[in-house]
């Protein structure tokens, strides 16, 4: 590994540790300022909730880590759209159902599963399932199922807020649309970076290390979430 690549890897590791060590270590929730705004809303607020949704996705490192793993080895735009759409369907279903149906679960455990989804994708990308078990889970089904957990994780955050009943459906739909817009913007940037990296000769040599790093980040997330669950039971 060249000195430049080694530096990039070390910076990425440091970034993951910093992110997980901050206030959002146990879960990237909604900021106090945004929570105060949400509680003060009376009626539909389409633009503000759309902005909050986009902001959440762009800063949602666990969602982005999973999606990076999903598209890491997807070379055709059609495949990217197909897999991201499956994630979006799952994410949207449980976000809306969790809040509107008041379906509750322990946020730490849900976020631990989200961390597991990151580990799963990195492990799948390095051929871990084929190597150890001789068979791999259906990747499309896995993305859809983990999308359900990612959306439910977001629902647990919104359930902690004083969401006004008036305009709730419109605001939730706006929030979800904002999430998808933020997801599209983030994935566009990731795809540009991946496309450039794939054109370099070192991509195949360092792809394993990148996915191992992704798995490490997922294990860190799982550890923090389970620690939070144990402390806050």
Radius of gyration: 18 Å
Low-confidence stretches: 1-11, 16-27
- The tally of domains stands at 1
Number of helices: 10
DSSP helix fraction: over 70%
User: Pairing-aware structural class of the strands and helices?
Assistant: mainly alpha
Major sheet details = none
Shape annotation? globular
Nearest-integer average pLDDT: 84
The beta-strand count equals 0
Secondary-structure element order, N to C: HHHHHHHHHH
State the separation between the terminal residues, measured CA to CA. Answer: 44 Å
Strand content: under 5%
Any descriptors?
10 helices
Word description of this protein:
The chain has helices spanning 3-21, 32-40, 46-59, 61-71, 77-100, 107-125, 128-133, 139-159, 168-198, 203-231. By secondary structure, the chain is an all-alpha fold. It has one domain (3-231). It is globular and about 55 Å long. Residues 1-11 and 16-27 have low confidence and may be disordered.
Write the layout of secondary structure elements.
Blueprint: H1 3-21, H2 32-40, H3 46-59, H4 61-71, H5 77-100, H6 107-125, H7 128-133, H8 139-159, H9 168-198, H10 203-231
Helix pairs in contact: 1-10, 3-9, 4-6, 4-9, 4-10, 5-8, 5-9, 6-8, 6-10
